C-alpha cells in the first residue's frame, strides 16, 4: 500500500478528536508533510474502563515503540476511547480516515455496526482490523482487507467450565456445601446479546454438565463487563440466596472482582466463600488468585493480540502478504489460544 502524505497540527488533533491517548513514537505530528515511510495506525477502543482492553492498548503502545526501534520504521498510534458509544466510535473512525491513517484497528462497540465501518474503510482503501469483539463472519468477508484478531469465546467458556468441574471433583465436600450432589451457581454475564457473553455462558455450563455434574442455576444477570455492577448483583444475590451459592461464574475478570468486592463486605470467612471463576487473567485478577479469593481464570492473551495486530498492520502497510506475518485462518482471522490459570500455574502468567 502506498503511504498517504498528510499534514496535521497536534493542538488541533487534541481539540477535534475525543482521544484517550495520542501516542507519537519518535515522530511528531507537526506541521508540514509527514515522511512517506511513516506508518499511522488509528486504534478505536470500545472503552478504556475495561481492564483487559486497557492492558491490550498498553501492550500495543510498547510493542510499537520496540518495533520502531528495531526496524527503523516510524510508527504513530492514535488511540481513542469510544466510551461504549457506537456513534462516538463512528466519528472517531471518520477522523482517523480524514487524518490519513494507513490502518484502522477497531474494538467495536456494537458488532451490528461492523458493515458500516467496513464500507468506510473500503471507500478509502484503508485496511481494517477488528479485535477482541468479533463481528459476524458476513461482515468480515465483506471486503478482502478486513481482518479479525482475537480468541474463541467458545474455548474460554469451555475452559472456565472445565476449571470448575475439576475443582468440584477434586474437593467435592468443600464446594458442595449442602451435600445434595448438585452444583448451585449464579452467572454474571457481559452485555445482553453480546456474542462472547452468550458463548462463554453456554460453553461453561456445557463443560460442567458434560462432565457428569448436575447443576442448578439460582440466578443470572448482565453486569456489562463492569466491576461495580457485578458487585451490586452479587450483593443482592447474597441477601436472597446466602449459603446456597456454591459457585459464581463470571464472563470476565472485572465482574469476578466485583463478586469479590461484594463478598469482602460480608463477615463470611474466605474459606466459606463460593468458588469464583473469571476470564481474561488481568493483573488484578492474578492478585486475587494469589490471595485465594478468585479460584481461577482463563488467560486471554492481550500481549499476543497486540503483537498480532501490529504484525498485521506492518505487513498490510508494506504491501506484503499478511499470511507471512501472522497465522491467518480463512484469509481473515488470527486466533490466539486461551489457557486456564489457577494458583498452581500462576507464576507462569503473573505480570510484573
Chain-wise SSE layout:
Blueprint lengths: L9 H7 L2 E7 L13 E7 L5 H21 L3 E7 L4 H13 L4 E4 L7 H11 L3 E4 L5 H4 L5 E5 L2 H18 L1 H4 L6 E8 L5 H16 L3 E9 L4 H15 L5 E4 L2 H12 L10 E3 L5 H8 L6 E3 L2 H16 L15 E3 L3 E3 L11
Parallel strand pairs: 2-3, 2-4, 4-5, 5-6, 6-12, 7-8, 7-9, 9-10
Antiparallel strand pairs: 1-3, 11-13
Describe this structure as you would to a colleague.
Strands 1-3-2-4-5-6-12 form a seven-stranded mixed beta sheet, sandwiched between helices. The protein has 352 residues and is an alpha/beta fold. Helix 2 (51-71) packs across helix 12 (302-317), helix 3 packs parallel to helix 4 (114-124) and helix 6 (153-170) packs parallel to helix 8. 41% of the residues lie in helices and 19% in strands. It starts with 9 loop residues before the first helix and ends in an 11-residue tail after the last strand. It is elongated and about 65 Å long. Strand 7, helix 8 and strand 8 form a beta-alpha-beta unit. It folds into two domains: 10-150 and 301-336, Rossmann fold (3-Layer(aba) Sandwich); 153-299, Response regulator (Rossmann fold, 3-Layer(aba) Sandwich), CATH 3.40.50.2300.
Amino acid at each position: 500500500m502506498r503511504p498517504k502524505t498528510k499534514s496535521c497540527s497536534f493542538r488541533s488533533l487534541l481539540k477535534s478528536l475525543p482521544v484517550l491517548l495520542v501516542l507519537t513514537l519518535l515522530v511528531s505530528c507537526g506541521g508540514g508533510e509527514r515522511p512517506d515511510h511513516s506508518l499511522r495506525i488509528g486504534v478505536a477502543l470500545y472503552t478504556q474502563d475495561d481492564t483487559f482492553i486497557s492492558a491490550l492498548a498498553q501492550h500495543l503502545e510498547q510493542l510499537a515503540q520496540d518495533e520502531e526501534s528495531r526496524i527503523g520504521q516510524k510508527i504513530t498510534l492514535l488511540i481513542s476511547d469510544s466510551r461504549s458509544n457506537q456513534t462516538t466510535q463512528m466519528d472517531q473512525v471518520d477522523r482517523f480516515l480524514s487524518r490519513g491513517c494507513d490502518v484502522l484497528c477497531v474494538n467495536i462497540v456494537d458488532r451490528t455496526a461492523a458493515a458500516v465501518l467496513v464500507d468506510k474503510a473500503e471507500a478509502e482503501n484503508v485496511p481494517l482490523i477488528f479485535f477482541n469483539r468479533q463481528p459476524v463472519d458476513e461482515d468480515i468477508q465483506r471486503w478482502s482487507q478486513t481482518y479479525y484478531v482475537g480468541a474463541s469465546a467458545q474455548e474460554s467458556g469451555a475452559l472456565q467450565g472445565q476449571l470448575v468441574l475439576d475443582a468440584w471433583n477434586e474437593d467435592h465436600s468443600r464446594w458442595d456445601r449442602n451435600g445434595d450432589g448438585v452444583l448451585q451457581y449464579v452467572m454474571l454475564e457481559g452485555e445482553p446479546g453480546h456474542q462472547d457473553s452468550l458463548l462463554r455462558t453456554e460453553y461453561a455450563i456445557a463443560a460442567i454438565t458434560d462432565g457428569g455434574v448436575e447443576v442448578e442455576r439460582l440466578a443470572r444477570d448482565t453486569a456489562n463487563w463492569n466491576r461495580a455492577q457485578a458487585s451490586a448483583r452479587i450483593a443482592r444475590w447474597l441477601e436472597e440466596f446466602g449459603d446456597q451459592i456454591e459457585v459464581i461464574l463470571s464472563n470476565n475478570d472485572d465482574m469476578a472482582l466485583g463478586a469479590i468486592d461484594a463478598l469482602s463486605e460480608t463477615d463470611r470467612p474466605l474459606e466459606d466463600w463460593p468458588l469464583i471463576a473469571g476470564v481474561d487473567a488481568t493483573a488484578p485478577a492474578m492478585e486475587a488468585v494469589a490471595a485465594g479469593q478468585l479460584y481461577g481464570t482463563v488467560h486471554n492473551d492481550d500481549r499476543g493480540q497486540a503483537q498480532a495486530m501490529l504484525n498485521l498492520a506492518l505487513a498490510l502497510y508494506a504491501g506484503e502478504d499478511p499470511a507471512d506475518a501472522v497465522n491467518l485462518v480463512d484469509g481473515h482471522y488470527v486466533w490466539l489460544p486461551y489457557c486456564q490459570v489457577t494458583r498452581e500455574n500462576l507464576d507462569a502468567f503473573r505480570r510484573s
